[in-house]
Design a protein that fits this description.
Length: about 110
């Protein structure tokens, strides 16, 4: 999430709303977002409803949910999906912003 926070203003300028979905319950998720003063939307998903909807992988040997990035257009269509194999397998913000530009212009 630090990566997303670093370029939050660029996401805003590209008309991208960042939503972070996490496995914690509402209380824990809210506490974390407040403590870290995260500038984007946080969605607690303790029952893994969103995880299942988008096919995000859970690997207990790698500490739970694997990273996933999904770009959804204004019509609600997932236009780009990246499923990471571990916590280091996350696309750079520049790649996400470039894809968002293509989606917004297309």
């Amino acid at each position: 999430m630090a990566q997303l926070r670093q370029d939050h203003q660029k996401f805003i300028e590209c008309n991208v709303e960042v939503v972070v979905v996490g496995p914690e319950d509402v209380k824990a998720f809210t506490a974390y977002f407040e403590k870290e003063a995260l500038p984007f939307i946080g969605l607690p998903d303790p029952k893994s409803s969103v995880l299942k909807l988008y096919g995000q992988e859970v690997n207990l040997f790698k500490m739970g949910r694997m990273p996933a990035q999904v770009l959804i257009d204004k019509a609600g269509v997932a236009r780009y999906v990246h499923y990471g194999h571990d916590m280091t397998d996350i696309p750079a913000n520049e790649e996400i912003l470039s894809l968002a530009d293509e989606i917004n212009l297309g």
